[in-house]
What does this fold into?
Amino acid sequence: MIDGDRGGEVVRTGLLTCVRGLVQVVVAQAVCIPLFVLTVLSIAFIPLGVGVVLAPVVLLAVRGVANTQRVWAAEWSGVPIPVPYRPEPDTRSPFRRLWWLLRDPATWRDVLWTVVNIPLGLLLGLLPAAMLVYGLEGVLVAPWLGRITFYGWGPFWPVDRFGPLSVAAAVALGAALTAFSFKAGPLVLKGHALFGQSLLAPARTTLALRVRELAETRSETVDASAAELRRIERDLHDGAQARLVALSMNIGLAEELMKRDPRAAQELLAEARSASGRALSELRDLVRGIHPPVLAERGLDGAVQALALTLPLPVDVRIDLPGRAEAPVESAAYFAVAEMLANIAKHSAATRAWIQIEHARDRLLMIVGDDGTGGADPAAGGGMRGIERRLAAFDGTMAVTSPPGGPTIVTMELPCALSSPRTSPSSGTG
It folds into this structure.
């Protein structure tokens, strides 16, 4: 029973491989050929202006087919092909979108894959089905041939010259080829997937750059974490710790004065109670600076709404999040928005601000803007540079548009997935 089940699984896999191979043939001939022709024409038309609009559409279509091939390679053959594309710019300008696509090396590798896949996809796609059909011909057709031939030839050699022996040999060879096709078909399909991997995966130079970026990001994250620890230690030493030491001294003095001067002891205890309240408040502020309770309880949506209410100017808040990100990503997003709002309150001289947060294409998009005096520059250091490093630790990006005279618009993106979907997003004005 076990061997029968295993044999049935082999047959099902072989038949499925034939179907998938034929799908690859259709893609190679009916999709890759038109796409390559349109790619050449759209790039040729760029000087005429038509290609500025047409080329991005065609190149993104090529990218879509390549992404489909990546998915098939992973699901059908277990060959992972990472997506190597550079981040898409947040712009509607056709010229910038065209430049983004043309300067990405992965675009040209996609085009090269499209060309080479035309003959190779046809050959490797047909091969599993061709082996199966030819093997089945030897098994099913040869016994009925006898001395009848098609143009003088049977499945493997001229049947009319060898008679029954030829028929028996044809059946045996057909059965062997059929069995072989069930085993070899998935290997042929995997060969096609490996061919796709050789062109569609990130190049070595891209991987080297990525490793260098990750090393730099890790170093910056370690430095930022060390600076954050020093800040917490300094705040504890200069704030809550000093107040607790003074509190302990006041209580000790009150104990000594309790019998000799109860009135003075009572005043010291009152001061101690006041100092304890201030120390507790400072500890709460310190905890909020590490991980705000409102963020844990209400998520990024509620935490940003609460932040907006603390600003001394109107803040339009529009948030559309169908779920919650992981805690580290959520925390990074919260502090990024908090730093931008703090800059608005301190430096912008703005009369109004706005916040827009949404999730699309597996990226958390945050836009914080104001109508202030402008001139914000992350390169000058300070809080914005720290936020840029914090986002980079999660492969996030930050773009600042702040001409003199304003407005200032800060666009931040974090790649992430959402979970725990909610039924309704929120929007409002702080």
User: Anything to note?
Assistant: Confidence is low (pLDDT under 50) at residues 146-162, 422-429.
